Amino acid sequence: MRKRYGDVEALAGLDLAVAPGTVYGLLGPNGAGKSTVVRILSTLTRATAGRATVAGHDVAARPDAVREAIGLAGQHAAVDEKLTGRENLRIFGRLARLGRRGARRRADDLLERFELTEAADRLVSTYSGGMRRRVDLIASLLRAPAVLFLDEPTTGLDPRSRLDIWAIVRELVAEGTTVLLTTQYLDEADHLASAVAVIHHGRVIAEGSPAELKARIGSHVDVEVGGEADLAGAVAVLERLTGGRPAVEDLRIVTGVPGRAPSVPQLVRELDAAGVVVQDVGVRRPSLDDVFLTLTGRTAGTGGAGGGTTGTPQDGPEAQKARRREWSTEGATA
């Protein structure tokens, strides 16, 4: 599947296959084309070339059938602030052709299920950001979709609201819904997704469960010694235990562990037996941030998939425009 915007090839060369009843995380820098993938798969825009199917329906040939099978929650809550939460959902239900009575019943059921009944008859303008996102997510569920597209669903939310959205997603998947999730937050994909794709230069460069991807990177052992006289002994112990090549900076030694990392008690025993004075010892398991940085050479704060979690300024418009020439998707299937 390919998508061009003038001279810019936004999507080209990325294949996706999402298992039913799972959360599939799609990670990439801001401006990488994640939202374009969602827009094509949800029939909001047409691909320039290639083929995609969603819930067994060809996106280009049978867009109506695709729309019948999906729900979509975009990056911004699409709710009317001048209406109440209940009124918003009933209107969405009518637009989804549930009928007046069906829309009322479905809206009331979902409001109760997701604990918004008390606020249902207040104007949405009085809602917090987290409540608005919950109403928007509920609106995408009015037709009980087989496939749900969540495009950065928790961007800008506080930690409590993010956890609420995560709980809703887990509940839906447990009931059989398939979720394609794009997110800026790598910890979100780590918590929710059973499979993750990291995209770079328009192709999947790594795919698997979060645990599988982190296992490829390996852990890091960090040791701080008491003095310079302890460095040589500590380096020798770490080389023997980890098989890695330690890096030394001042009195701190860090080494990657390609296989299974030694435990902290084992490290302390071996260093003590070698006569090394130790100030601190730690074993750090890799995160998806480490995976992303290692595979793409990009940090989350410089346009990476976790942008916004580090406080580093995002790339400017020109950098984003140039990056859109690199990133792509082809042959996506949900």
TrEMBL record:
Q: Where is it chiefly localized?
A: membrane
Q: Where is the composition biased (Gly residues)?
A: 300-310
Q: Which residues form a coiled coil?
A: none
Q: Where in the cell is it found?
A: Cell membrane
Say which family it is in: Belongs to the ABC transporter superfamily. Drug exporter-1 (DrugE1) (TC 3.A.1.105) family.
Supply the PANTHER family for this chain: ABC TRANSPORTER ATP-BINDING PROTEIN, DOXORUBICIN RESISTANCE ATP-BINDING PROTEIN DRRA
Q: What is this protein called?
A: ATP-binding cassette domain-containing protein
* Organism of derivation: Streptomyces galbus
